[in-house]
Amino acid sequence: MTTKTPAAKVYESWDSVDPALARLGKIEPQAQEEKAKLKALIQETKNEFEPRIKRLDDEIDAIRDGLTSFVLANKRDLGDARSMSLKHGSIGLRLSPPKLVTLGKATWGKVLELIQDLPTALRKRFIRIDEDVDKKAVKDAIESGQLDDVTRRQIKVDLIQEEQVVYDLAAESAVRG
After folding, report:
1. pLDDT score, position 177
2. In this structure, is residue 8 part of a structural domain?
3. Whole domain around residue 85: which residue ranges?
4. Is residue 84 within 8 Å of 91, Cβ to Cβ?
5. Residue 102: which of 90, 91, 114, 94 has the closest Cα?
6. Does the residue 73 lie in any domain?
7. Which helix (H) or strand (E) holds 90?
8. CB atoms within 10 A of CB 147
9. Which residues of 6-43 are buried (b: 16+ CB within 10 A; e: fewer)?
10. What's the whole-number mean pLDDT along residues 38-44?
């Protein structure tokens, strides 16, 4: 089922705005109530399905672990094909894609330190430097006056503030129907 989002209402006078605020006072609590009901139903559904899914996932994991142990213990039976076709499927061994790992107890931080001791050509090749604009620093510099208008325009940035319409409903509008 698809629903259309209503077009923005057009208000032509302050007299037409007040009933709109009254309507908001009526429907916003209804929307919150509907959202709360939906959240409760979602949680109820999760509570119903998650234990069943967990049992199935646990069984899947147990079967896969058992199959892995069996295949590794009996890999000589697979022959050169490194797989075996059975009535309900095939099973075998495959090499994973190459993955870079650290040796021993080395961390990636230690690897970085060691790479920094290599000749410049290798160091530049193996160390990636990601550069990004520090937006907070630029914003702070503009606000504090450390970044003048000429430089700001030169680097094509500006600080803007957008005017936004806000409303605050009178307490009785939220209660009235």
Report:
1. 47
2. no
3. 13-94
4. yes
5. 114
6. yes
7. strand 89-92
8. 19
9. eeeeeeeeeeeeeeeebeebeeeeeeeeeeeeeeeeee
10. 98
Identity of the amino acid at 27: I
Residue 48 belongs to some domain of the structure = yes
Q: How far apart are CA 103 and CA 114, in angstroms?
A: 13
As for how many domains the chain has, the answer is 1
Q: What is the mean pLDDT of residues 66-74?
A: 94
When pLDDT is averaged across residues 39-50 and rounded to a whole number, the result is 98
Q: Which residues of 93-123 are buried (b: 16+ CB within 10 A; e: fewer)?
A: eeeeeeeeeeeeeeeeeeeeeeeeeeeeeee
Please identify which residue in the block is written with the tokens 């680097």: 155
Task: Read off the pLDDT of residues 2-25 as tens digits, 9 standing for 90 and up.
Answer: 677 777 888 899 999 999 999 999
Q: Would 24 be classed as within a structural domain?
A: yes
pLDDT one-digit tens code per residue, 112-121: 999 999 999 9
